[in-house]
Design goal:
It is elongated, with a radius of gyration of 20 Å. A hairpin with a 3-residue loop joins strand 12 and strand 13. The protein folds into 2 domains: about 55 residues; about 80 residues. About 0% of the residues lie in helices and about 45% in strands. With about 140 residues, the chain is an all-beta fold. The strands form 4 sheets. A 4-stranded antiparallel beta sheet has the order 3-2-6-7, with no helix packed on it. It has a 4-stranded antiparallel beta sheet with strand order 8-9-13-12, with no helix packed on it. A 3-stranded antiparallel beta sheet has the order 1-4-5, with no helix packed on it.
Length: about 140
């Protein structure tokens, strides 16, 4: 039988979670976003600490867009700047940086949304529309 030791923390980038060691490292991930995260194992609570980095390629599910609402979702101004609320799943916790939100037709006509932020954990992003024209656009990135 193996002894059980508490590892100080395991992280991928700035995401921390605690694990126990019993012959293997078994962990539960915490909420987050992104893909191809590396895993850092830091052993010990006091100095000297030992860290090991592993290219674990830990990934979260891709975002799912279900609905659009708000003034920018229908008959929007061509000069942009109107609010659009995107609801769905896998957007990440509050405070998640939305690196890019694009709508239009992939590879043909793409408009960058601006000022995007997660406004309800995992299920809602609010953005401002970009400058553009057309109708029936969908979030494509």
């Amino acid at each position: 039988m193996f002894n059980t030791f508490l590892f100080h923390f395991i992280s991928f980038y700035n995401l921390l979670f605690y694990c126990f060691f019993q012959g293997l490292i078994r962990c539960e991930t915490i909420e987050g976003v992104g893909k191809d995260h590396k895993l850092t194992v830091q052993i010990g609570m006091d100095a000297p600490k030992e860290s090991v980095v592993y290219d674990a390629l830990i990934s979260y599910q891709a975002p799912i867009v279900a609905t659009y609402q708000g003034p920018g979702s229908s008959n929007a101004y061509t000069y942009g700047g109107q609010s659009i609320v995107v609801r769905g799943a896998n957007f990440g916790p509050l405070g998640t940086v939305v690196e890019k939100a694009v709508y239009g037709e992939l590879g043909v006509y793409e408009i960058d949304a601006t000022d995007c932020s997660v406004t309800s954990s995992h299920t809602e992003i609010t953005c401002k529309t970009g400058k553009g024209a057309g109708q029936g656009h969908k979030m494509v990135k």
